[in-house]
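Technical annex B. To support the medicinal chemistry partners, we prepared a structural model of the target in complex with flavin-adenine dinucleotide, based solely on the information shown next.
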Amino acid sequence: MGQYYLVYLELRNGAIAKSSIDVWNRFQELAACIDDRMYGFAAGPAAEGAFDVLQGNGTIYHAAGSRSGSASDVAVCAMLEELACRHGVTGIALASTAMGRRLAPLLSGRLRAALLSGCREFGGPDEACSRFIHSGSVIASYMPASAITVFLQGRELVSPDFCAAERPQIEVFDAAPYLDAGIDVLFRPVMHSSQGRDIAEASVIVAGGRGMGSPEAFGLLEELAALFGGSVGASRSAVDEGWRPHGEQIGQTGKRVAPDLYIACGISGALQHLAGIAAARIVVAVNSDPDAPIFGAADYGIVGDVRIVLPELIAAVRDLLTKK
Amino acid sequence: MRIVVCICQVPDIASVVTVVDGRIDLSRLSWVMNPYDEYAVEEAVRLKELLPGSEVTVMTATEESGRDLLRKALAMGADRAFELLSSSLEDSFQIASVLSGAIRERYADALPDLVLCGRESFDHQNAAVPAMLAGMLGIAFTGPVTAISASGEIVEFERETESGIECLQAAYPLVVSAEKGLNIPRKTGIRQVMEARKKPIETISVSQPPASLLRLQGVVPVSAEKNCRFAINARELAGLLLRDGCIPKGEE
Ligand SMILES: Cc1cc2nc3c(=O)[nH]c(=O)nc-3n(C[C@H](O)[C@H](O)[C@H](O)COP(=O)(O)OP(=O)(O)OC[C@H]3O[C@@H](n4cnc5c(N)ncnc54)[C@H](O)[C@@H]3O)c2cc1C
């Protein structure tokens, strides 16, 4: 029998999140056998043509009626459960977003489905998944032992280039029976303050530590990050100093990130910090202390004062960008 | 308010985890309370101080003795503790099952108002137990929160999303997990440690937890150590990044 996959497609401001499209593409690639089937599910209002970004065949259920933003986790979970049962789904996949990280274990517990998250290699829901544990010092591989697998995909996996001529079919899903049954309909949004892009999804991160010396100096990092189309991150010391919000903290008590390029500026490279960047591809360190441990975890380094090196690096990158 | 805090212990990050004969060698590690769980215990104790008549119960699901861990939580101000000794705890599913079983049993009439957990454990970093537990108890889960303000009837909390901070209101019962930034856990002194000795710790043996959903196949140690190439100046570094394809392509 083939594999039946169900992908949760997160809608943000009416558009499908980039990380959800990556998951859809990965499972389209996996579902290459003739017997395999693809399903998608999205809840909340979608802009005109929002689903046009999805390629490949399959059916996407859209529960437009559910109030997104406050679309309760429990209701979404119940609708996914219903679709999983209706179609005999063998694998449910979600992107590792704030919501995905809440939904995946919820589904796993309710469906008694093995939860695979943080996988660095992934061959399908019935194959072993290897991931970092113990702060990135060990890689463990796990084999799911359940009929259904829940898969939470983060940036540890390189997103696939998937291309197909077919387009999935969109079907309306009636959310009404699930909405008032939800036990957390009482979740009422009180306010929402927005900050920049989320670092967990960034492909380039320029991060600063205590060595930046002041909150103002992070302006240099913002400038450099902007050249790469990236985001700014911070060490815990920089966050605890009040220079940056906690949402930008990288490390064991912050976010684990997996950018293609990570530039650490004035960061010493404590184990708790390195735990957050184990999955980063190229690591660059700028530090005035040649013995700083961060150099041991870096591919490239410059020994020097950030206040001197960073303006030079900004100029050099800008030169290369305009020369091309 | 009746509060349950679920906690665990993890290897101290300063002690290096080694792999011996294809298995993680836990014998030479020193253990501490999972730092996220410290935030959870602290928040529970603060809520108790704020809302008179509240009671804080801590629980740990463990294969070996969890008494030292529980004593630390009692010293921080929890009132009583349960050590849930289980024959097997191989994945988050087993841990959540043992915890939900114990909570259901202890709170047969009405579930506790709040179940607090840490965001994730430092060792396995799955961040799965809190949501699984909520699903098993049939109550809502807030996700990791950075601020809580609670009254007897309603709780307001803040959580991080991709686009910023979200502030929400919810009714009890609720599972909440503690994110860094929620509070700064208190230090405990001799007096608190002595007082904690008088508080009850009850052991419950769970002989048959449900089977795990994940089978560990193997572990390999990894070294974060890279061979750093030092650039003499920013221009050389930019050149290296260009060579590696890190500099975005221009318009042409
Ligand atoms: C339980 C626990 C959890 C933790 N979790 C995290 C976490 O999630 N994330 C995290 O980052 N940390 C975490 N830490 C803290 C961690 O141990 C370190 O204290 C922290 O990472 C250090 O931050 P830093 O590198 O910015 O500062 P420092 O260690 O103070 O390093 C500053 C660096 O800047 C360099 N420097 C100074 N001036 C300049 C200059 N002008 N130009 C260039 N370089 C300069 C210095 O040489 C030094 O290397 C945790 C700690 C504990 C105990």
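Notes passed to the chemistry partners:
Chain A touches chain B through 101 residues (CB under 8 Å).
The mean pLDDT of chain A is 90.
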